[in-house]
Design brief:
Elements (H helix, E strand, L loop, with lengths): L1 H22 L8 H11 L1 H4 L22 H4 L3 H10 L13 H14 L2
Helix pairs in contact: 1-5, 2-6
Bound molecules: heme C.
Heme C (HEC) binds next to helix 3, helix 4, helix 5 and helix 6.
Length: 115
């Protein structure tokens, strides 16, 4: 039951991101200024103050992604939101800690630092 709810929640978010992407190509409805505040609070410890992946690094497993890299920029909103929600190896999932709106705000900020 829990699993079904989670899957519904995640696919709802993904669907939402796709619909928004269509309505406003290249632009999120997220607020990058709010996203920056959230990023500083939650993400810089690992991803570094500029998102360059120069925060905390791990003995084992992948180091934090450089969010300013072209490889991140090329990923779709849905992919990045999924990474943020589900987490990655060495990155905790954020879906229980960030609301849907906060996730979009953070993503909007990440888009502003991606080169
Ligand atoms: C505990 C450390 C840690 C924290 C905190 C953290 N991350 Fe990460 N993040 C990582 C690591 C490590 C990776 C790379 C995993 C890999 O390479 O498989 C990653 C990968 C990512 C990716 C995927 C990038 C790509 O190109 O696919 C995104 C997006 C991301 N993080 C966003 C965030 C956001 C937004 C926050 C704050 C809400 C955050 N991270 C907080 C460690 C962290």
């Amino acid at each position: 039951m829990f699993k079904m709810v989670t899957v519904g929640f995640v696919s709802g978010l993904l669907f939402g991101a796709v619909v928004q992407g269509r309505a406003e190509p290249g632009v999120q409805s997220g607020d990058a200024a709010r996203g920056k505040a959230l990023f500083v609070r939650h993400c810089t410890g690992c991803h570094g103050p500029e998102g360059g992946g120069d925060g905390y690094s791990f003995f084992r497993g992948p180091d934090p992604a450089n969010l300013t890299s072209p490889s991140t920029r090329k990923k779709s909103d849905a992919e990045l939101i999924k990474s943020i929600h589900e987490g990655k190896p060495n990155m905790p999932p954020w879906k229980t800690r960030l609301s849907e709106k906060e996730s979009r705000d953070v993503l909007a900020y990440v888009r502003t630092i991606a080169k």
